[in-house]
Design a protein that fits this description.
Blueprint lengths: L1 E7 L4 E5 L1 H7 L9 H5 L3 H17 L5 H6 L5 E5 L7 E12 L5 E10 L1 H28 L3 H22 L1
Antiparallel strand pairs: 1-2, 1-5, 3-4, 4-5
Length: about 170
């Protein structure tokens, strides 16, 4: 379910990658793409990503990796996808460190995971939850309505239905 590739500490993409990365990121060959092409950077994001890599190089020994990763400017991608129900493919991006034999940071592994189905299920569940809450509110509203008001409503509704029938015939 994941595509992976590695980047050097100067932001260049290495030749080794999983074939799944091509499918997930919708490119022909990850190794022939720049990091900006893979992660769909604009100029502002590219500058932010370069600053993040500099921060990682300076702080990877002192800071916990998960804290450094939270600062990465690209965590998710939304790619146009005609196969998806919504026309969008949701990709989560994760970063892992790779050390050399001397325990120095050598590369960063980038993991791309297609989260489209999961997000669509979450969205459907949220829509069902909201619909359920609205139904419960409506039922409670009716249950809390005094019987006299319900009787008046029923009489009024009956009269309106009779008038509609009369105007149709």
């Amino acid at each position: 379910d994941q595509g992976l590739f590695t980047i050097n500490l100067d932001g260049t993409v290495n030749e080794e990658y999983s074939m799944r990365a091509n499918e997930i990121l919708k490119v022909q060959d990850v190794a022939k793409c720049s990091l900006g092409e893979l992660l769909r950077f604009d100029t502002k994001q590219e500058n932010a990503f370069n600053k993040w890599i500099e921060l990682v190089k300076a702080k990877y020994r002192e800071q916990r990796w998960n804290k450094l990763v939270k600062l990465a400017p690209i965590q998710d991608l939304e790619l146009w996808s005609p196969e998806s129900e919504e026309g969008v493919q949701y990709i989560s991006i994760q970063y892992n460190r790779i050390f050399d034999k001397k325990n120095n940071l050598k590369k960063i592994m980038v993991l791309a995971r297609d989260e489209t189905e999961s997000r669509q299920r979450q969205k459907q569940l949220e829509e069902q939850r909201i619909r359920h809450e609205n139904e419960v509110k409506m039922i409670l509203g009716i249950a809390n309505t005094p019987p006299e008001e319900i009787a008046e409503f029923m009489i009024d509704t009956s009269e309106r239905v009779k008038r509609l029938k009369a105007s149709v015939t």
